[in-house]
Amino acid sequence: MAAYIALPSSISLNSSSFSGLRNRAGAQLGVRNLGRSRVSMAASVGSQTLQSDALFADYKPSSAFLFPGQGAQAVGMGKEAQSVPAAAELYKKANDILGFDLLDVCINGPKEKLDSTVISQPAIYVTSLAAVELLRARDGGQLIIDSVDVTCGLSLGEYTALAFAESFSFEDGLKLVKLRGEAMQAAADAAKSAMVSVIGLDSDKVQQLCDAANAEVDDADKVQIANYLCTGNYAVSGGVKGIEAVEAKAKSFKARMTVRLAVAGAFHTSFMEPAVSRLEAKLAETQIRTPRIPVISNVDAQPHSDPETIKKILARQVSCLELSPPYHVTRARLLI
What residue ranges carry the coiled-coil annotation (predicted)? Predict the structure, then answer.
């Protein structure tokens, strides 16, 4: 039987500081023990630049790390990083790149500042990778890390997964995430929009809910499914009035609950189109290598090995429907 693990960047591991990080539906994430280990596949390809995009076409994973996206942030996250030199060093490097004390904001907030897109995206990226270092420093941690043979992440978490898979350096990844947060915040500021997670309905019912909400709002406020997070959990994006209509109608469609997401706007929709060109320019100047293990894309739920393809997908990701890996990866269970 295969071994499985989900690594949200919280890595709770009985830690009150890292376990504060939450997923986008508001449920706390943790780490499950592996039944057995498996050395990660294709470890030697991390430095290669291959023309083919089919290197991982026949991958057979047994253990996966899943990294969270924006909305997972919580004041207090990262506190335990101070006790692990390798983790603390990541925050020091981040300070130089970002120009402010990131760990201080993570630990002390205020919440409104941490929730801003320009802060939360770098904060989650750095805290996620610091959590890996926290795990590495614990008994058996390196064995768990070495057993991971596929990785993925929710939206922003795809950047963290690529850094973990050594497709780009920590520093280059953080520079990308910094620009991504700034570009998405600017796009969100240009039009009032929001996201809400609808829990307890199948995708057809959520689409019907969106249609009902759209019948009551202008074109500028229309909504759509933006993220297929997992069965029974779908994120809806759109104008604020459309999102409010979804929330008001959800109970009549027998939804169990709705959770407004702590994000700046309607991510993974056309609202984010202004951010795409800025991302494309930054990605063009960034060195991206073939990942050492498969990284499942949010755009098409496939692993990619060609660096140029990865760049194109990362640029598209912010403005298109997101097929989140936990929903589509079935060959390796992600325990949450």
Answer: none
Check 17, 40, 155, 319 and give the catalytic one.
Answer: 155
The yes-or-no answer on residue 268 being catalytic is yes
Q: Between these two residues, 151 and 323, which has the higher pLDDT value?
A: 151
Point out the domain boundary residue: 270, 295, 319: 270
Say if 8 falls within a structural domain: no
How far is residue 52's CA from residue 306's CA, in Å, rounded to a whole number? 6
Per annotation, catalytic residue among 19, 120, 268, 304: 268
Q: DSSP secondary-structure letter at 299? A: T
* Edge-to-edge strand list for the sheet holding 150-153: 64-67, 150-153, 295-296
Give the range of the structural domain holding residue 209, as residue numbers without chain letter: 190-270
Task: State the chain's mean pLDDT as an integer.
Answer: 84
Between residues 91 and 28, the one the model is more confident about: 91
CB count, 10 Å around CB of 178? 19
In a domain, 6, yes or no: no
How much is the pLDDT for 172?
98
**Which CATH number goes with the domain that contains 112?**
3.40.366.10
CA distances to 80, 90, 134, 137 from 14, rounded to whole Å, are: 11, 22, 12, 14
Q: Tens digits of per-residue pLDDT, 77-130? A: 999 989 999 999 999 999 999 999 999 999 999 999 999 999 999 999 999 999
Round to whole Å and give the CA distance between 278 and 265.
17
Q: Concatenated DSSP letters for 4-43?
A: -----TT--TT-TTGGG-B-TTS-B---PPPSS--PPTTG
Is pLDDT larger for residue 321 or for residue 175? 175
Instruction: Based on the fold, state whether residues 286 and 211 are members of the same structural domain.
Output: no
Domain termination residue (choose one: 270, 296, 320): 270
52 to 87, 114, 283: CA distances (angstroms): 35, 40, 19
